[in-house]
Design brief:
The chain folds into two domains: about 70 residues, 3-Layer(aba) Sandwich (Rossmann fold); about 70 residues, Translation Initiation Factor IF3 (2-Layer Sandwich), CATH 3.30.110. The chain is built from five helices and seven strands. α4 links the parallel β4 and β5. The chain is elongated, with a radius of gyration of 23 Å. The two termini are about 30 Å apart. It binds zinc ion. The site of zinc ion (ZN) has 7 residues, from loops.
Length: about 150
Amino acid sequence: GWKFNEYEMRGVPVRLEIGPRDMENGVCVLVSRITGEKKVVEQANLVEEIQNMLTQVQSDMLERARTFMSDNFYSVDTLDEMKELMENKRGFTLAGWCGSEACEDKVREVTGATSRNIPFQPAEEKHTCLACGEKAKNTVVFARAY
Ligand SMILES: [Zn+2]
């Protein structure tokens, strides 16, 4: 058991289990860390089976990350909205920013969030700065560091 846990902590994506009976039968068990799926495979096909499972793990992890990101992405127009959001949920917040350092500082003071990036193609264009209400120069992703 502790070996399973230790390697799971390290992020090993596929576990291969093989015992004396498996050796006799020419099989082994592959276990996906992401889905927990267990699959008995012929040792003769092991390389191909591992490659397939790794490809599946990669795709499952990407899908999970995309779902997590879209489930935790919000859009706000005012500092009050962002403050409430940051107090009640974790996540990324899209908001307009006029480009002034004073407004960036104010956002951090009030909400605890800082700018993370300026997306090339934001899901939505913001037209006013969330802190001062002036014309936004950029649509920015804000988040709190944890
Ligand atoms: Zn501003």
